[in-house]
Structure formats: C-alpha cells, structure tokens
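Closing statement on the magnesium ion sub-project.
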Amino acid sequence: LHAPRTPHAAMADWTDCLDFGISLAKQASEAVLTAFNRQKEVKLKSSPADLVTETDQRVEKMLISAIRKRYPQHRFIGEESVAAGEPLELTDRPTWIIDPIDGTVNFVHRFPFVAISIAFTVNKQTEFGIVYSCVEDKLFHAQRGRGAFLNGEPLHVSGQEDISRCVVVTEIGAERDDLALSTLTSNIFRLLKLPVHGVRALGTAAVDMCQVATGGADAYYHIGMHCWDIAASAIIVKEAGGVVTDTDEFDMMSRRVIAASSSSVANRISQVVRAFPCRRDCGGAPGANGGAAL
Ligand SMILES: O=P(O)(O)O[C@H]1[C@H](O)[C@@H](O)[C@H](O)[C@@H](O)[C@@H]1O
Ligand SMILES: [Mg+2]
Ligand SMILES: [Mg+2]
C-alpha cells in the first residue's frame, strides 16, 4: 500500500527542494517589499475586488523559472499562470503550488500583511509548505512529519476545544454576488452569536491560517479561496498539531477549508458555517454544496 506509486516517491527526502524554496521565498520577498511603497498598476481578474499587479506576475515568473532551471522535470500550479490560461492540473509529478503575493489587495493598499506562499506535492501529497509574511519578516514552514516552524522556532496550535473560547479567522474573499456575500456574512453572524471570543481577517488566507499554527487563533475557515492560497499553510497547521478538514477529508481543490486547534472546534464550525457553490479548482465532481453546511 505504501509502495511509491511513481518513481518520484522513491526520493523520500525533499529537504533540498524545501531549502531551495525557502531561499527563493526570501528573494521574492525582497522584490515585494521593494515594490510595496511604490505606485502600482492594478488590473482586475474575477471581480472588482480580485486584483493583480505587475509585481505578482513578475515574482511568479521569477520563482517558476528558478525552480524549473534546478528541477526541469517538476510541474507548477501558479496563481497568475493559471489566470493567464495555463491548465490547473494536479498530477503525481513533483508539483510546486505558488501564490506569488497572497494578499494583493493589501499589497495595493500598503496594508502590511502580504505573503509568498509555496507548497510542494508529490503523488498529490504535500511534502512541505512555506509562507513568508514579508512586512512582518515571518517565515512559516513545515515539512511532512517534521514539525512546523516560525523563523526556526517550533509552532504548536492552542489545543482549544471550546468554540466559545475561540478566536476564529476567516476571509470575505473577492466574491461580490449576493449569494456569496449573504452566505459569508451570515456565517460570521452565527459564529458571533455562539458566541466566540472574536472573528478576524488579515486579508491573506495564508497568513490567516498560519495564526492557527501559532496558537494566536484557534480556527480558520474559508469558502471560495483557491488551492494556491492555502496549500502551504494547510501543512503548516497540520504539522503544528492542528486539524485541517472540510466536510470530511481536506481537499485543497474543493475551495473550502476548515483549520482548527482541535477536531471538536472543527466540527462545531462545520455545523455553523455554510458554503456557497464554488467551481472546484480541478479534479472530482463540480463543486456541489449549494448553501449546505460545510
Ligand atoms: O491576494 P490573492 O493571492 O488573490 O489571495 C487572496 C484572495 O484573492 C482573496 O479572495 C482572499 O480573501 C484572500 O484571503 C486571499 O489571500
Ligand atoms: Mg492568494
Ligand atoms: Mg496571489
């Protein structure tokens, strides 16, 4: 059952790729910070709140070309490459899942939470994740089975089991249609009425989710994000002892996620939070879940 399904899995240790990914994330952060206070040319993607800048595109190209030069056989899923028409397909091949700037709205507004998010999968299993919160200079990373770290210090979730003692992080993404907005705002209303201690949103899914790994938040949920927003932070939460789920198994392509300090908190959130229909990023049946509980 555990025999490698492809020759790639025979190379059990991906530390060289992780170290290279971390060095690239630091390089990319320099480019993001150089542009952070400068005038930006902003383009729209899926909605008036889904922005992209030349820096997003340039950073992603830099990351992919550097990785391709070192690992020519590897595959890529990059937010801006997909936006430019590249196919979004996760295979068994070693794959880098890249969000060059997570929090582009923040980047455009100089709201100081922007991150580079890089995940790496083999046989569709995440081997490591890197989230670099550039302005904060906080490098989160995790390697499968080897723990989660913030600037080299080990991370552990809060372990909170009581939803009424939780700080919950979420995002109101780029959707501006009535169904999405009424679903998302009523989710926040129901959580606050439980009550929970607080609801927070930093404007970057990756950094939001890493707060669960630090114990600074106790849960995170999001509907409508994409695989590149959360692929890296998902393994960081899991390696910090947290739970990452959806209705059942976590499926990074489903565009729904719950990350929590404990399964009891994850279960409570899945009872309270409702989803709206989202087309899957790839694979499986088209996104169902029209407003049902997660
Ligand atoms: O900034 P990007 O990479 O586009 O990702 C954000 C997404 O676009 C928003 O819809 C979400 O609300 C944010 O949490 C993501 O970080
Ligand atoms: Mg993103
Ligand atoms: Mg992005």
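The first helix runs from residue 7 to 10. With this model delivered, the sub-project is considered complete and its resources will be redirected to Aim 3.
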